[in-house]
Amino acid sequence: MENKKVYNSRMIKKYFQKINKFIKRHNPFRLKPYLGEDYEDHWNFTDFKNKVILDLGADYGSTADWFLSKGATKVVAVESLNFPELAAWADGVKVIPVNLLIQTPADYERLITEYHPDVAKIDIEGWERPMLEADPLLIGSVKEYMIETHSKELFNLLTSFLTKLGYQVTHSRELGPETDVIFASRNTTR
Q: Whole-model pTM?
């Protein structure tokens, strides 16, 4: 007589939860960082768990993938140059691809109004400047900003702008002679 093990639904569910946990920790299919950047070092200034991320300068989706691996519930991935690769990878649910070159204050305002992000990561090679002219109430509705700047002038302007809006610049990181990352946060109510 064969000794067959009977599996109930709770055992099966627990088994798949263990597999999913393993895959999240050891996923060999994660997208490789763009230009070899170390996202742990570059962007890991806050807890992304259960947050909506507005990813301006999303490359082909590697930063969006990294934010999801850190627990983000949704990433709005905005890109123009690498958009075809991003759109092919994004699922439209957890990662929403947006084909847009940010050039005006209205671009910032529309994205914040439409997606209500908790965190905005901005790495758009100098196009951060229009943010300075966007509606301060909308800019101020985002709880946290992570902004890569490519000039000391822009770094100083954005740091001053965010400070005047009530943000605390709790971290800034120099990545090169003209490249810095600003991390700014504040408590906001929506």
A: 0.79
